[in-house]
Design goal:
Layout lengths: L5 H28 L3 H8 L1 E2 L9 E2 L9 E3 L10 E5 L5 E4 L15 E2 L2 E2 L32 H18 L1 E2 L2 H15 L2 H8 L2 H13 L11 H13 L3 H16 L10 H7 L8 H14 L3 H9 L2 H9 L7 H16 L18 H5 L10 H12 L2 H16 L10
Helix pairs in contact: 3-4, 3-6, 4-7, 5-7, 5-8, 6-7, 7-10, 10-13, 13-16, 15-16
Length: 411
């Protein structure tokens, strides 16, 4: 290197060294003040609603082979096995395993997607063409499993399993299933299948007594739908009623998932019929009660536990939208207790004489058993319909027949 260039090169090297010396701390400071790309990614993938890091959870649900709770603000990957608790609304998910058998359904006999009950079938003669589905002993024939009937059978089994396990893929599917089950419940065969499973019957009674009306948008409230299913299953179906009668004491002692310790007995005798519900729910509930008290023991218990008091509350209403529910109550009373031509057993109810008008007009005594006549008279003035007039007339006849029983006052 020529002598003239040495001072210039030395100066350049010194300047370059100073430049690196000042730049290094700044770079270090910059790198320490910002998280790494991996750290930033990890932090953004968590959802934290509190300052406690243990309460954070992944933004995208991480499935395992066991069911885990899915939070409302989590994202669910496709292809998982998702279930919804129909009582709490809590959603759970896990890795989907094709053809996995639900242990809760272990031992449940299923044939062509229809739940069946194993029972010995006695030999019967050849049924002639055009004969009814069941013989005079009550044998019920299974629907043919083809076409629309097969589709109905599959839909029935799916909703049946939702009620039995308390699990559903979604609220919409559960509500749609209940609607379909209500339609099928009027069929003698399916009505019997519903009542043959104690867990399903319990679930329907719990829904009927819930009175919260939970349902997805546009669907019929579940308490009303459950009452309609029970009413349909029991309508003109003595075998279905016999199945519920078998488990009646145990059923009433059961508690529901959302009942806070209250039993089905508590709900059935306090909340099944209430004017705080909709008229449509009350109509369905009265129809279910009408089917249940066809059984002698259930009817006796219903009378002993002031069940008629619940029904009388409906007659106190004067709003026009309650006319249909009031007619339903009148039909129950006439068919069960007052009209012998409709199968009523006379003398079981009412007991004693009618109460005085002043007693029945007072709010604190308006629901006394002797006040049915007073409120039937109100129905005649309010509606003037044949059913209200017949109810008033037959109540009066029954009171005369019971004139020797303890007096409740003069009407």
């Amino acid at each position: 290197m020529p002598p003239d260039f040495r001072p210039l090169a030395l100066t350049f090297v010194l300047a370059l060294g100073l430049l690196f010396l000042f730049a290094a701390p700044a770079a270090a400071s910059s790198s320490s003040s910002q998280p790494s790309p991996q750290a930033a990614s990890d932090e953004s993938d968590l959802i934290c609603h509190t300052s406690n890091p243990e309460e954070c959870y992944p933004r995208v649900f991480v499935p395992t082979h066991e069911f885990q709770t899915v939070h409302d603000d989590q994202q669910l990957p496709n292809g998982l096995h998702v279930r919804l608790n129909i009582w709490t609304g809590q959603k759970e998910a896990k890795i989907n395993v094709p053809d996995e058998v639900n242990p809760d359904l272990d031992g449940l006999p299923v044939d062509q997607a229809v739940v069946l009950v194993d029972q010995e079938q006695p030999e019967t003669p050849q049924i002639p063409k055009g004969a009814p589905k069941y013989d005079n002993a009550g044998k019920i024939k299974e629907p043919a499993q083809e076409g629309d009937a097969q589709t109905e059978a599959i839909a029935f089994a799916e909703t049946f399993n939702m009620l039995k396990t308390g699990e559903s893929p979604s609220e919409e599917e559960f509500d749609n299933g209940l609607e379909g089950l209500e339609e099928l419940s009027h069929d003698i065969y399916y009505g019997l299948k519903i009542t043959e499973d104690a867990d399903v019957v319990k679930a329907l009674f719990c829904l009927m007594g819930a009175r919260d009306g939970d349902a997805s948008e546009g669907a019929t409230p579940r308490d009303q739908q459950a009452a309609a299913i029970l009413a349909g299953a029991l309508s003109n179906n003595p075998k279905a009623l016999a199945e519920i009668a078998k488990i009646w004491p145990e059923l009433l002692d059961s508690t529901c998932p959302r009942a806070d310790g209250a039993t089905i007995f508590d709900h059935f005798y306090q909340d099944t019929v209430s004017v705080t519900d909709s008229p449509a729910k009350v109509k369905a509930a009265v129809s279910a009660i009408n089917g249940l008290i066809k059984d002698e023991e259930i009817r006796k218990q219903f009378l002993d536990n002031s069940g008629m008091r619940q029904l009388l509350t409906v007659l106190l209403e004067e709003r026009p939208e309650w006319a249909g529910a009031q007619r339903k109550v009148a039909q129950l009373v006439l068919d069960t207790f007052l009209d012998e031509d409709m199968g009523a057993q006379l003398g079981q109810w009412p007991k004693g004489k009618a109460s005085a008008n002043g007693v029945c007009a007072a709010p604190e005594t308006a629901l006394d058993d002797g006040c049915w006549d007073y409120h039937a008279e109100r129905m005649v003035k309010l509606h003037g319909t044949p059913w209200s007039k017949e109810l008033k007339q037959r109540l009066g006849d029954a009171r005369k027949a019971n004139s020797k029983l303890p007096d409740h006052g003069e009407l």
